[in-house]
Design a protein that fits this description.
mainly alpha, 2 helices
């Protein structure tokens, strides 16, 4: 039970009456942009997500930075 040619013609006439011949290209362009952005969003979902940094790595990096700052601070205090 598909759409026949007469059904498509009736739909086209209704669209022309509702939107008018002047606005029809703008409506179709907006519809095309919407479909394109939807497809782009769907393709972005298929890309593998980036792996977040492991908490252990963050703790180790923060500890190393804090230790380096502490050592630098002590060296500056001792120099004065």
């Amino acid at each position: 039970m598909g759409l026949s040619t007469s059904h498509l013609l009736i739909i086209l006439v209704i669209v022309l009456v509702v939107f008018g011949a002047g606005k029809l290209p703008a409506v179709m362009r907006d519809l095309g942009q919407g479909v394109k952005s939807f497809k782009d969003a769907m393709n972005n979902d298929k890309d593998p997500p980036e792996e977040p940094a492991k908490p252990e790595e963050n703790i180790a990096a923060a500890t190393a930075a804090t230790t380096a700052q502490t050592i630098e601070g002590q060296a500056k205090r001792d120099a004065t």
